[in-house]
C-alpha cells in the first residue's frame, strides 16, 4: 500500500514543482513514400502521417487526464526529408505537405526536415539545404536539423559554411518575428536518431516505423529536492539527484509504454534530459544555483552541471527499460528564466556556455546574437561546438538566432515555450579565412586520449 | 482498476460526506481512506475501485466541479503513476 507521504510527494511534484512529461513523440518512417513525382510523394507523406498519427493528440490528452500528469507536447518525427525527396526534389513542397499533415492531426511540432551530411553532400542534399530557409519560413510546425559532423567522420566544413549562410537567410526571412525561424533550425554533431525533442527530432534510418519516444522533464522537482536537503555535501547531493531523477523517469516510462500500447506502436526510449521552460520553478540554471552558485556562469558552473547531468543519467537509467535520445540537461538561454537573468546581469557569456556544453547535452541552444553577425562567424561558432562533440563522442548542437536589427543589450521575444532571448555579445575577430578553406576536419584518433 | 483520490484544501465540515457522496453517484467504491490536517490544510487520500465506473478522466472532471463548489482541490489519478514512481 502506498504511504500518505508518497502520494503527497507526487501531488506536490505535479502541482507545485512543474513535473510534466514534456513530449510524446511518434517516430514514423517515410521511406515508403519515396517516388519520382513530388506531388505523389507529398500525397503519400500526408496520407501516412494523418493516418498513423490520427490518435496521437487524443491519446496524449486521455493519458494526462487518467494519470493526472500534464503531457505538454505531442509531436511527430519523420525520416530525414532530404532522403524522402531524393528521387523527386521539390523540397519546399514536401515541407508544406509535412506542415499540412501536422496541422490536420493537431500536433505541436513535426521534426525531420533534416539532412545527414557529416561526411559528404549529394547534389540533392545540397538542393535540400538550399531550401531550408524558404521551407521553414513558409511553414509553422516543421522543424529542421542538419548533422554536419560526427566522431566517426569528422566535421564537414563545407556543410558548416553553408549552414552559417542558411541561418542568416532564415533570420532575414522571419525578421518580423525577431528571426524566430532560426528557433526551428538546429545544426548537429553526432545527431541521435531517436531524439523526441525539437527542433532536432528526426526518425533515423536505422529506426523502425511507428515508435513512441518520450521526453520527461522536471527541473523544478530536482531544485526542490536540493533545497530541501539543506547543507549536505556533494556526495549526498548526487544521491538525492539520482533518486529524484529515478522518480521523474518512471513517470515518463509509464506514460510512454501506455501511449505505445494504445496507439499500437512500439515503445522506443525515454530521453532523460532535464528540459526547462521560461516559467519560474522550471529552470536548470536555478538547480545549479541551488547547488551553491551565486549565479549560473560563476566559476564552478561547469563542475556543478557535470555532476547534475551525470546524476540524472544514473538515476534515470535504472528507471527505464530503454534510455536514448539526447539524455542530458538542456541549457537553452531563452527558455530558462535563470539563464536569461544571468545573461542580463553579465554573469553568463557565450564562452562559458560553450564550456558548459562540453559536459552536458546539447549545445549552444536558443541564443540570440546581434543581427549584424556574419555568416562566417556563425559557421565558426558551429565548428567550435562540433569540435567539442566530435572529440568527446557526444552530441552537440547549435540553435542560434541572429536577431535582425538588434544588438547586445536588446531582447527578442519569441513567446510561449521559446521565451525571451537577451542578445549576447560575440567575439568580433573574424574567422572568415578559416571558414572559406572548406573541406573536412578529419575524424579524430580514438585512442591516446588526453 | 484502482485510482487514488486526493482532496486538499481548507478544513471545513462535510468534505468527506460530499466527496464520498459524489463517488457513490459515480459508482466508485472507496476501499481505503485516510485523512489528516497538514499545516492547517485538510488532506484526504482515498483508494477507490473504478472498475464499474466511467473513465478516470470523466470522473476527474466531475470531482473537479465538486471541488470548486466546496472550495477544495480534488484530483483522481490512476494508482500506477504512484506505484511506478515509488516502487521498484
Blueprint (SSEs and pairs):
The complex is a heterodimer of chains A (450) and B (88).
Chain A: H1 4-15, E1 21-28, H2 38-52, H3 56-67, E2 71-78, H4 81-84, H5 91-105, E3 109-116, H6 123-137, E4 142-150, E5 154-156, H7 157-173, E6 185-189, E7 211-216, H8 219-229, H9 234-263, E8 266-271, H10 284-290, H11 301-319, E9 323-324, H12 337-344, H13 350-356, E10 363-370, H14 375-392, E11 396-403, E12 411-413, E13 420-422, H15 432-436, E14 440-441
Chain B: E1 2-10, H1 15-25, E2 29-38, E3 41-49, H2 56-70, E4 72-78, H3 79-86
Helix pairs in contact in B: 1-2
How would you explain this protein's 3D organization?
The complex is a heterodimer of chains A (450) and B (88). With 450 residues, chain A is α/β, with parallel strands linked by helices. Chain A is built from 15 helices and 14 strands. Chain A has two domains: 167 residues, Anaerobic Ribonucleotide-triphosphate Reductase Large Chain (Alpha-Beta Barrel); 217 residues, Anaerobic Ribonucleotide-triphosphate Reductase Large Chain, CATH 3.20.70. Helix content of chain A is 43%, strand content 18%. In chain A, a hairpin with a 6-residue loop joins strand 12 and strand 13. In chain A, helix 8 packs antiparallel against helix 9, helix 8 runs parallel beside helix 10 and helix 9 crosses helix 11. The radius of gyration of chain A is 21 Å and the shape is globular. The mean pLDDT of chain A is 95. A four-stranded antiparallel sheet of chain B has the order 2-3-1-4. Classes of the chains: A alpha/beta (450), B alpha+beta (88).
Amino acid at each position: 500500500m502506498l504511504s500518505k507521504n508518497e502520494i503527497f510527494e507526487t501531488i506536490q511534484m505535479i502541482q507545485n514543482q512543474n513535473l510534466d512529461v514534456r513530449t510524446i513523440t511518434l517516430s514514423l518512417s517515410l521511406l515508403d513514400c519515396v517516388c519520382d513525382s513530388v506531388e505523389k510523394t507529398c500525397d503519400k507523406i500526408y496520407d501516412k502521417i494523418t493516418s498513423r498519427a490520427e490518435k496521437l493528440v487524443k491519446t496524449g490528452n486521455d493519458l494526462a487526464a487518467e494519470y493526472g500528469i500534464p503531457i505538454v507536447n505531442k509531436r511527430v518525427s519523420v525520416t530525414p526529408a532530404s532522403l524522402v525527396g531524393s528521387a523527386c526534389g521539390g523540397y519546399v513542397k514536401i515541407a508544406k505537405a509535412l506542415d499540412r499533415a501536422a496541422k490536420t492531426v493537431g500536433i505541436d511540432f513535426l521534426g525531420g526536415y533534416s539532412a545527414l551530411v557529416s561526411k559528404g553532400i549529394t547534389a540533392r542534399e545540397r538542393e535540400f539545404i538550399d531550401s531550408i530557409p524558404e521551407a521553414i519560413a513558409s511553414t509553422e510546425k516543421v522543424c529542421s536539423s542538419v548533422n554536419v559532423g560526427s566522431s566517426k567522420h569528422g566535421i564537414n566544413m563545407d556543410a558548416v559554411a553553408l549552414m552559417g549562410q542558411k541561418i542568416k537567410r532564415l533570420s532575414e526571412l522571419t525578421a518580423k518575428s525577431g528571426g524566430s525561424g532560426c528557433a526551428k533550425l538546429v545544426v548537429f554533431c553526432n545527431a541521435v536518431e531517436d531524439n523526441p525533442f525539437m527542433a532536432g527530432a528526426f526518425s533515423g534510418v536505422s529506426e523502425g516505423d511507428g515508435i513512441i519516444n518520450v521526453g520527461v522533464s522536471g527541473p523544478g522537482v530536482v531544485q526542490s529536492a536540493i533545497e530541501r536537503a539543506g547543507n549536505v555535501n556533494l556526495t549526498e547531493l548526487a544521491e538525492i539527484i539520482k533518486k529524484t531523477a529515478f522518480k521523474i523517469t518512471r513517470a515518463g516510462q509509464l506514460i510512454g509504454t501506455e501511449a505505445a500500447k494504445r496507439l499500437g506502436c512500439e515503445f522506443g526510449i525515454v530521453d532523460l534530459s532535464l528540459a526547462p521552460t521560461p516559467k519560474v520553478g522550471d529552470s536548470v540554471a536555478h538547480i545549479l544555483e541551488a547547488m551553491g552558485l551565486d549565479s549560473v556562469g560563476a566559476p564552478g558552473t561547469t563542475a556543478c552541471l557535470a555532476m547534475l547531468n551525470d546524476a540524472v543519467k544514473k538515476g534515470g537509467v535504472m528507471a527505464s527499460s530503454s534510455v536514448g535520445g539526447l539524455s542530458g540537461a538542456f541549457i537553452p538561454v531563452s527558455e530558462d528564466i535563470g539563464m536569461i537573468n544571468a545573461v542580463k546581469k553579465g554573469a553568463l557569456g557565450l564562452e562559458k556556455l560553450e564550456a558548459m556544453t562540453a559536459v552536458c547535452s546539447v549545445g549552444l541552444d536558443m541564443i540570440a546574437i546581434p543581427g549584424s553577425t556574419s555568416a562566417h562567424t556563425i559557421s565558426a561558432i558551429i565548428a567550435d561546438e562540433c569540435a567539442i562533440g566530435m572529440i568527446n563522442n557526444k552530441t552537440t548542437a547549435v540553435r542560434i538566432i541572429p536577431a535582425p536589427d538588434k544588438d547586445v543589450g536588446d531582447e527578442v521575444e519569441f513567446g510561449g515555450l521559446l521565451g525571451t532571448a537577451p542578445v549576447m555579445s560575440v567575439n568580433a575577430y573574424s574567422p572568415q579565412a578559416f571558414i572559406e578553406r572548406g573541406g573536412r576536419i578529419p575524424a579524430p584518433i580514438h585512442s591516446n586520449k588526453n | 482498476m484502482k485510482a487514488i483520490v486526493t482532496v486538499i484544501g481548507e478544513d471545513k465540515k462535510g468534505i468527506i460526506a460530499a466527496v464520498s457522496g459524489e463517488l457513490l453517484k459515480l459508482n466508485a467504491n472507496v476501499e481505503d481512506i485516510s485523512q489528516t490536517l497538514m499545516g492547517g490544510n485538510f488532506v484526504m487520500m482515498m483508494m477507490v475501485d473504478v472498475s464499474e465506473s466511467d473513465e478516470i478522466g470523466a470522473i476527474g472532471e466531475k470531482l473537479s466541479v465538486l471541488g470548486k463548489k466546496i472550495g477544495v482541490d480534488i484530483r483522481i489519478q490512476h494508482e500506477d503513476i504512484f506505484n511506478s514512481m515509488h516502487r521498484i
